[in-house]
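Run: sequence + D-MYO-inositol-1-phosphate -> complex structure.
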Amino acid sequence: MTRSAPAPAELLTIAIDVARQAAATAHRMRAEGVSVAATKSTVTDVVTAADRAVERQVLDALHRVRPDDAVLGEEYGAGAGGTANGVRWIVDPIDGTVNYLYGLPYCAVSLAAEVDGEVVAGVVRNVFTGEEWTATAGGGAWRDGRRLNCSTEVELGQALIATGFGYDPARRSHQARVVAELIPHVRDIRRLGAAALDLCLAAEGRVDAYYEKGLAAWDLAAGGLVAAEAGLRVSGLRGLPPGPDLVIAAPPALYAPLHDRLADLDASGGP
Ligand code: IPD
Ligand code: CA
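>> structure
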């Protein structure tokens, strides 16, 4: 770890403070009304004024307290921040933007801090419910004061599996084919609409496991740490780290059967 880098707990304190203010802004802006400001990768990949305003607020707040840190955000990219001290923040101002647009109470601010490329602190806060998940590397995963443990389910056939779909139609078709082949072998599938929250639900056994192709760093950073600190194994396929090709988050007993089935189904393949 970079010598000048602050402790994970210190970064988490900052992250929580910034995420709470950001979630309050997102909540207020939703109450005032919401509309699509632009589209990104496809016509269904939308960005609202709130996505931009919330990320701007996070960037400004981080800059005030940690002016030398780098920041990567979904809406404004890497910005002009520094990297010399090894600290980089990763923010998704609103994960679950489509839910936000429709007023479905399953979207979150996700904010993580990396030191030397390793995520060491993260917070995910549900904009509508105020539920808040936190984790530090080696310090466990927590929700609202309670330490979290993942599911103890051992049978894939009894497992409730969360997943998601990208915005590109060709990718979605491939993902749907994978789900069609997986669903006969599990309890059921959930597509709730916010990857960071899916990972947090897995951290407390409200779903048993999660997988998805196509996640960006801001979808994964904070929720991935929460999941890992709750005991889930978080990886890609065949020993790869989790990343855009695939993220699997599964309790130890479910990991191999889910991984192997996803590998057989070429879950990381397609466009
Ligand atoms: C999306 C959500 C969704 C997942 C997509 C993500 P966004 O993020 O997390 O659940 O399936 O892969 O892109 O666009 O709402 O920030
Ligand atoms: Ca987003």
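>> summary
Residues 92, 95-97, 164-166, 193-195, 212, 214-215, 219 surround D-MYO-inositol-1-phosphate (ligand 1) (CB under 6 Å). The chain has a mean pLDDT of 94.
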